[in-house]
Amino acid sequence: MSRPTTRSKNKRHRPIPDVDTTSEILRKIHATGEITDGDLKQLYKISKPICQGCRVNTKDNPNCFCALIPPPNGSRKSGLWQKVSDIVEALGPDPCKDLRVSAASPAGLTNLGATCYANSILQCLYMNKSFREGVFSVEPDVLKQHPVLDELTRLFAQLHASNRAFIDSAPFIKTLELDNGVQQDSHEFLTLLLSLLERCLSHSNVSKARTIVQDLFRGNVSHVTTCSKCGRDSEASAKMEDFYELELNVKGLKTLDESLDDYLSLEELHGDNQYFCDSCGTRVDATRSIKLRSLPDVLNFQLKRCIFLPKTTMKKKITSPFCFPGELNMQRRLSEPSQLDLTYDLSAVLIHKGTAVNSGHYIALIKDENTGQWWEFDDEHVSNLGHHPFGEGSSSSGSKVVRSEPVVCQPVSERVEGANENHVDVHLPSSEYYNGSNVERFTSNDAYMLMYNLRRDKEDSKREDVVHDVNNMEIESEMIFFNDDIFLPSHLGKDIKELNRSYLDGCEQFKLRKNRELDCISERKQEVRSLLSEAPVPSLEEPFYWISSDWLRQWADKIFPSTLDNTSIQCLHGKVPESKIGSMKRISSKAWNKFFFKYNGGPALTNDDYCMTCLIDGAHTVVCADSYRDRRKSLKGLADDVLSGKLVEGTYYVSKSWLQQWTRRKNLDAPSEADGGPTTSIRCPHGQLMPEKAGGAKRLLVPEILWLFIYEDAMKVKPDDLLGCSTFPLDSE
């Protein structure tokens, strides 16, 4: 048994237009000369039912208002009915999105292309409260003389008190004449920047500012060479050198303690490397080492992850995990015993993401001195990490760290083989390295620089962990104060105050513009829905108006519609022709009055504006088309006989290929463009008949009655092409 076909079962059939009915009515009008009300209702399709639920707007039903607007939860790509998010986006960038949450939330810095290395260092310096205070205390006259220091101060002031969530670093980067598209090494940048700032600040008369770089970052070391024979140190050993960071090896080393041991280890000089001792007067074996003489308040460790490969003359990044403590005691590292408490707390970790030396991305993890909260500074984006540098939950509980996989950092003898090598912190038992106390330790594959702050007395370190709104500034005596006892001088305070005012005004203006736009759209949507619900005419007896479908469609789709325009549905007599029924809709008087009152224009075309003249002309055209169709049909049979050879007697030549195409065309109501040029291909450039052997010049003789019909059609479609319809009788040369 064959399977029943279901292909067309659910197919949506298009309505067949009432062409035959219309033609019959027009033939009746032509025959009788009378037009009844029933004829008008059928010709103008007034009696068609009001549509509901069509997927498209039906053209042959003037009572269909479907699909002019999308369904309740639908939208369109443009115009009135597009998504609200797209409408808001078209207004331009929303400045409110860049609004800083609060003063307790640090601001970011814009990345100008490849300036992440500079942004990370700048954030580390700004978040150091003592350094920030020193920079803010520089006199205006000194700032004017040193553009780099001036721009740094302005940048710090914006980071401190701006309402923006991130600050444009372009002015400062431009002053340094840095190439935005080339990434530099963050360590080199810090070294050069501190050196430059030290020179600029030396011109200040404010003691706090003048030596702030040296006071915070400078320590002293000695390179000591000791004779193994007499035990005396070289004269150069007494010389102390300044350092602003300690460069530590990480290759083959797993912890910060191991790297410090390596840095301070003894180097034996013997053989070709023997040392000439002045006391002994000869070359002798000796030892050489680095001695730490004094330590700064901010201790920077540069981890030497980039090594040079002699074989390839290339640099390679070491990505092995490196362990470092949250608390570091440097007491035993000094060359001479000190009574000072040299306990340091981890304050910042500079991260270099990526495996390549000359590319990748820098971010900074920095601890807020006031609150103890850690923050991740990734250019414009600043994220709160809680009380751990790699995110909350990164403890011995084994929970994952934000943006990384957990790994347990243990003493070398207790390392777990196969552990994931990435960032994590873990509480460990007491260790001789950390004063016998439990100390948090952290491991990172990408840590590039470590910053430790010297621990202050408890009384000095007490601070309230209070969140303060940026807008709640207290302006007194032209100074801007914050509750953390840091202030902005008047010249900076005024600038920041003006920048904030301008920015907040911009935010407010955008909000007003957005609200006006959304209110306008909401009102327009309500207007469209309301008018379309009133548009259908309840009954055939009620008066109504005709309106252009094109104008109605753009009115329903545009936010700001144009003036009402019905000219496209008017005939030459100023009435409504039956031929325009597919381009217009029939609406109620109530709806028309509202349209006309709000949008003016016109003209007003009522139910009395049927064009009888056009109807009579249309009826005549239909009858003429009937006559033309019948004539063409009968003559087509004659042409078939000519082509088949049944009819060989003829009086006029036509192109054979043209006649073949003519017989294949559908039977039309009037001639078309293809009916032109029946003798073009058989006519030579001189206007005579081409030889039959010429290419494409084959012809046939047709009877005079067929030729006259062909000639008449050709002249109708191309009246100016006289040569294209040249007449070639039987005796043509």
From TrEMBL:
Q: Which reaction does it catalyse?
A: Thiol-dependent hydrolysis of ester, thioester, amide, peptide and isopeptide bonds formed by the C-terminal Gly of ubiquitin (a 76-residue protein attached to proteins as an intracellular targeting signal)
Annotated DUSP domain ranges read: 519-611, 626-727
Subcellular localization is given as: Nucleus
Q: Which UniProt key words apply to this protein?
A: Hydrolase, Nucleus, Protease, Repeat, Thiol protease, Ubl conjugation pathway
What the entry lists under Gene3D superfamilies is as follows:
Cysteine proteinases
What is one process in the GO biological process aspect for this record? Answer: protein deubiquitination
Q: Which Pfam families match?
A: DUSP, UCH
Please provide one cellular component term from the Gene Ontology annotations of this protein: nucleus
Report the enzyme's class at the first EC level: hydrolase
Record's keyword annotation contains Translocase:
no
InterPro entries per UniProt = DUSP-like_sf, Papain-like_cys_pep_sf, Pep_USP48, Pept_C19_DUSP, Peptidase_C19, Peptidase_C19_UCH, USP, USP_CS
- EC number(s) per entry: 3.4.19.12
Organism superkingdom: Eukaryota
Q: Which PANTHER family match?
A: UBIQUITIN CARBOXYL-TERMINAL HYDROLASE (PTHR24006), UBIQUITIN CARBOXYL-TERMINAL HYDROLASE 48 (PTHR24006:SF722)
Q: Main role?
A: Recognizes and hydrolyzes the peptide bond at the C-terminal Gly of ubiquitin. Involved in the processing of poly-ubiquitin precursors as well as that of ubiquitinated proteins. Deubiquitinates H2BK143ub1 of histone H2B.
User: Family per UniProt?
Assistant: Belongs to the peptidase C19 family.
| Descriptive protein name | Ubiquitin carboxyl-terminal hydrolase
Organism in which the protein naturally occurs: Citrus clementina (Clementine)
